[in-house]
Design brief:
The chain folds into four domains: 34-139, Nucleic acid-binding proteins (OB fold (Dihydrolipoamide Acetyltransferase, E2P), Beta Barrel); 150-264 and 358-417, no CATH class; 423-470, no CATH class; 487-706, Ribonuclease Z/Hydroxyacylglutathione hydrolase-like (Metallo-beta-lactamase, Chain A). The strands form four sheets. It has an eight-stranded mixed beta sheet, with helices on one face. A five-stranded mixed β-barrel has the order 1-2-3-5-4. Helix 8 packs antiparallel against helix 9 (242-260) and helix 12 runs antiparallel to helix 15. By secondary structure, it is α/β, with parallel strands linked by helices. Helix content is 49%, strand content 16%.
Length: 710
Amino acid sequence: MRRPLLLALLAQSMVILFLYYLDPFGLGSALLPSSGLTELAGGVLELSGVAVKSQPAKGYIAVTLRTDGEKVLVRVNASAEEIDAYDIAGREISVTGPLSIPDGRRNPGCFDYRLYLKGRRIFTIADVSRYRLICGRVKRPVLHFLSVCKGRFYRTVEPYLTDEEFQLLAGLMFGDTSLMDESMYEQFRLTGIAHVLAVSGLHVGLLYAVVLKLLKGRSTAVSAVVSGGLILIYAALSSFSVSVLRASFMIALNMAARFAKRRYDLTSAATLTAIVFLFFNPYQLFDSGFQLSFCAAYTMGVALPWATLKGIELSDKYKKKWILKAFEIFSPAVMVQLGMTPLILFHFTTFSPAGILINPVAVMLAGLLLPAGLALFVISMPGIAAVTALGALPAGFLAKLLILLSDAGQYALPGSYVPALPLAATVFYYTGFFWFFSETRVVLNRRKKHAVCLAAGLLALALSCALPKALGLSESIVPWRHDTHEVTFLDVGQGDCIHICKDGYNILIDGGGSLYGNIAERTLRPYLLKSGISHVDLAVITHDDTDHALGIRQLQEIFDVRQTAVLGDSNDDCGVLMIDTGNARLLLMADADMAREAELCADYGTSLDCDVLKLGHHGSPYSTGEELLRCSTPAFAVISCGKNNIYGHPADRVVELLADSGIIYARTDESGAVYLKKAENGLLVFENASRSARWLIQKARQTPSTLPKR
């Protein structure tokens, strides 16, 4: 059964990849799930339906509204103090606000919010004021009751735990990591135990094991009914997260196998689950949680039996029982670490040397904390203070131990952020990994068909190298090479940031910056690491304005920036740069105004001739005059400005001037990051990060006569 299912999953995955990335003849948009509401995006709509999920988020209340068979993410502009988020779930609600399509990937290699929501069958977002949210009667009483109980549990238990203990308990029990302090969550990631905070197969499996232990001796039917009911309740409390639903489906298969007295095969069950879930929503294939959970399942199903067999062989060979015991304790953690680390490196750019050592202990503590937390959930419902305080003691103690374990792991073997593993290298690794542990390889070796085994392995590895390139997922067939582009105009919101990469030398020109968030942590470091960059050779600050300099200052604190140069203090003396990469001449105007442009034209004239012009001051009405365009004659212009910025950049005058001058332009507020994808035969090909737009530019110079006279 295993091989046909694996082949079916592989075939379906390839079809999905082919349709999503290549979209031949428009079939991808026709066959993949879609939404009729996307056609109405951009307008203000009144939507009504049932809230199937509601919880506090950072700065708003996140409500998933089901209306006419579709799901919409409603972001209510309110805090938890203003609105009880947990009372909304299960109610009929009506909201009025602008409907929009979620942002896709804004910078190369970085998070794709649109694709993430598609994996949850959400295609549109409505941003509403709390005064435009009308809650009606309870439509789904069980869902509403459980949500209210969850909110009451948080309010009742919080006074009896420290902030760290409460946040960890909420994260581990229900996956509410939005309640966690960012520094604590980051440390859990760096120590490799953040998976205990994402409600997944581990949690559902622990709950299932506890229930079976408590029901020992009961009939299979009774165990199945009780287990299924409790898991369904737990899934509802966890807001029916996709990972919980996947784990629940696999446990349902396990219960069915027990009931039918048939053998349960983990690999076959995981594959069947993947096929079922991908059938209903193929976009889940691109979700990191989906990939990690099934990677763990396949690792346990394929690699762990091999490790157990090796433990038995060594134990029998040396006649030492402790060898088998050691394998039983450590081999699951080691194998899962070997199976998960490359994917974690690819998605999250973190390496956790302490993970192998502390994961077994972390899983054990999580296995104790989860039932302790669920017991506390039950006994706290009557609201008796003494009982709640007593029940909070073991949960708080176990949470404290888990926090101390994370602290110890980070102190002894600190984790770090590292460059991401290239996609081709990731595919290459897993091809070799699963081929090594496959039954086919073992059988071929036992039959002494080593040449066939080696040839099959090499063929699989060769195909794994070619596949990402063939599907357009990678620009190189070489597994260890990242898709780093020569010139990238990053999307840093209302600010400037240009990355120049030439012959392995990396230069950042400005780094954006905002007083409302750390642009280095949110954008610059993820972009650099996903591009395979471990250090910046030179960071140039054109002038000391916040939206140009702050990002570089913040990056210096968390990244290896080897040299920094500051060119000016203010807009009046900002550094204007002409850079020739060999493939393109770039004129970068920083925040220069038209007076400064006139000075440059007078001093340099046609020496300002360029292929690409980065407009001054984000397309401000006080920059980019006709004289500059006549001197520089750009073939392509880039406007770096923030989406929905309060300054109204770019100005209509500037946009009209570019259009009248016949200059093709791109805006980071509309397209996200823009990079030079290819330069050959006198052509420059620019593309945006989400690959939704491409610009083909002829390098031949324009003449002043082509520009309008005013």
